[in-house]
Each structure stands twice: as structure tokens, then as C-alpha cells.
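Structure in, sequence out. Go:
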């Protein structure tokens, strides 16, 4: 019996039919790609934008019979998505997409930072999937995004290293704050418009936010040093409730607490920032108060705000 699907038994015309069908299929894939690109680039519908980005992020354009020599990487579609998302919220001017000559590769700049920072996405190869938004020169991954799982996580370590340490001497604090707000707004749009699970981490300005520090059992000397440095800078540091931790009142009703959140059993040291308008985060405190920044960085191994351990090892 002749197997019609066995290439060795096909007639010449049969081989040509199969070849032609494979070409058609490859071209149809290319056409589908262009339709998704049109949707990503042109739509003003936020739901269609997310749908196009999600599909393009996993799209395979080439086939065995049709290959396209000029292609963006899957990670680049996340940059297009981020830029378009900001554009739909009238913030398109806050980011600049750049491409390299003779090569399809996108990078992004935050407009306030100019050439002080160039960013792209890196695809996560583990089973977690998703992508990391990183500053290319330093390799710092500022946040994690997963469109399929509708998940967004900021990385305290990278935000601190890049914006509080690396750029501290060369970029004004207000410029840093304006730049970070672009990232914060992007995360907020994902949360508010699409119900994403978002961890704002060190950027969360809500009074209810407990910033868990890296060291579960904080050495006593860390809090003692805050008493000393606060006094030198004319701020009053008082004992926390029942002598647990400490509280410092900064300007305009901003209060920072550091305390053991679990008095019995396994300790968990946390920090909180309270202000009437809920606009000040721990990141803002680090930017505005040099003595708080110096105290935090001196004991960063213990005090660093923890990020999602399932995403940031």
C-alpha cells in the first residue's frame, strides 16, 4: 500500500503541492504577524493592545520553508507594549524608543534621564517565564513582568543600586524621582486597567505598606545607629510602641517606623512610612533625606527591603 504522506512515495506533482502548501502556510503566518503588529502599533483599545503584545511575545515567525531575515526579538515587543501603554495614558513623550542601524533591536530611554540610562527587556528562560526590565550598562533588573500570568514585581535591590547609589552623584534627586514615576505609573496602569498582581515594593506610598527588611532578626546596633544619626541631624527618634523598634518624625508629618512585626515566635522586622496624603514611599525618603540614605546603605545587608523571593533570588 502506498503511503500518501511518505515523501518517498509522492509523485512529482504531489511533492510540489506539499511544497506550495508549506509556502502558503509560512506566508499566512507572516500575514498574521503583520496583523498583530498593526494592532500593537495602532490600536487605541487597551485590551487589544495587551492581547497583541501577549501573542507577539511568544510568536514564531519563521517556518521550515519561509524565513524572514529582519526580525525583532520577542523581548522587543514588550518595549513596544510598554511605550504604547504609556502613550494611551498621554505619557508617550516620557519614553524614547531607539533602534540600531542595520539591525532590528530596540532599546528605550526614560526621557528625564536622557542618555544616563538605556533599558531593554530580557526574557526569563526559567519556567517562570516573563521578562525583566533592565538597565543595559549595569545589568540591574528593575522590574519583572509576565503578561500571561498578569504579574508585575518591582525589585528593591536594583532600584536602590541604580537610582540611590549609582546615579546619586550625577543625577539630581528630582530627575530620579520623575524617571522612576514613569515606571511606577506603568505598573499602576497594569493594576488599575487590567487587574494585574503588582508589588510596588519600595515605591509603595500606601500607609498600610509594611516594608519587610532582609534580616528577619535585625541586630540591635542598627536601630541604635539611627538614634545617633537622627540626633546629629536635629530629628527626634523615639522608642516604638512598648519599646519595640523606633519612630522618627520627618518634615510635613512624615513618620517612619521600624519595628518587629511579630513579637512572638519568628521575628520579622519591617519599616513603614506614614503621611496624610499617602504620597511618600521609602524610596522618596531615601531621596530626600541624606542621613536616612546613609544609615540605610551602611547596613544594607540587613536593612534592604525584600523583593519577591520567587522572582528575585
Amino acid at each position: 500500500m502506498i503511503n500518501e504522506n511518505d515523501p518517498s512515495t509522492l509523485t512529482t506533482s504531489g511533492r510540489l503541492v506539499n511544497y506550495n502548501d508549506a509556502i502558503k502556510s509560512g506566508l499566512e503566518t507572516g500575514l498574521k504577524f503583520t496583523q498583530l503588529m498593526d494592532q500593537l502599533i495602532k490600536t487605541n483599545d487597551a485590551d487589544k493592545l495587551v492581547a497583541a503584545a501577549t501573542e507577539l511575545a511568544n510568536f514564531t515567525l519563521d517556518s521550515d520553508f519561509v524565513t524572514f531575515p529582519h526580525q525583532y526579538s520577542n523581548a522587543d515587543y514588550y518595549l513596544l507594549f510598554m511605550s504604547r501603554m504609556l502613550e494611551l495614558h498621554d505619557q508617550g513623550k516620557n519614553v524614547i524608543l531607539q533602534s540600531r542601524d542595520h539591525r532590528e533591536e530596540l532599546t528605550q530611554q526614560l526621557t528625564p534621564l536622557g542618555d544616563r540610562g538605556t533599558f531593554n527587556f530580557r526574557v526569563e528562560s526559567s519556567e517562570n517565564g516573563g521578562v525583566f526590565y533592565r538597565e543595559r550598562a549595569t545589568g540591574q533588573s528593575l522590574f519583572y513582568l509576565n503578561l500571561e500570568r498578569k504579574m508585575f514585581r518591582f525589585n528593591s535591590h536594583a532600584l536602590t543600586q541604580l537610582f540611590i547609589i549609582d546615579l546619586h552623584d550625577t543625577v539630581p534627586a528630582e530627575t530620579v524621582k520623575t524617571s522612576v514615576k514613569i515606571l511606577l505609573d506603568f505598573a499602576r496602569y497594569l493594576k488599575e486597567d487590567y487587574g494585574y498582581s503588582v508589588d510596588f515594593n519600595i515605591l509603595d506610598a500606601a500607609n498600610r505598606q509594611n516594608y519587610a527588611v532582609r534580616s528577619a532578626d535585625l541586630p540591635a546596633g542598627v536601630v541604635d545607629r539611627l538614634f545617633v544619626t537622627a540626633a546629629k541631624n536635629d530629628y527626634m527618634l523615639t522608642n516604638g510602641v512598648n519599646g519595640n523598634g523606633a519612630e522618627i518624625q520627618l518634615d510635613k508629618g512624615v513618620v517612619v517606623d521600624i519595628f518587629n512585626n511579630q513579637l512572638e515566635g519568628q521575628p520579622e522586622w519591617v519599616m513603614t512610612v506614614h503621611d496624610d496624603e499617602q504620597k511618600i514611599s521609602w524610596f522618596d525618603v531615601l531621596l530626600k533625606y541624606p542621613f536616612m540614605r546613609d544609615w540605610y546603605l551602611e547596613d544594607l545587608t540587613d536593612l534592604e527591603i525584600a523583593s519577591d523571593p520567587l522572582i528575585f533570588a
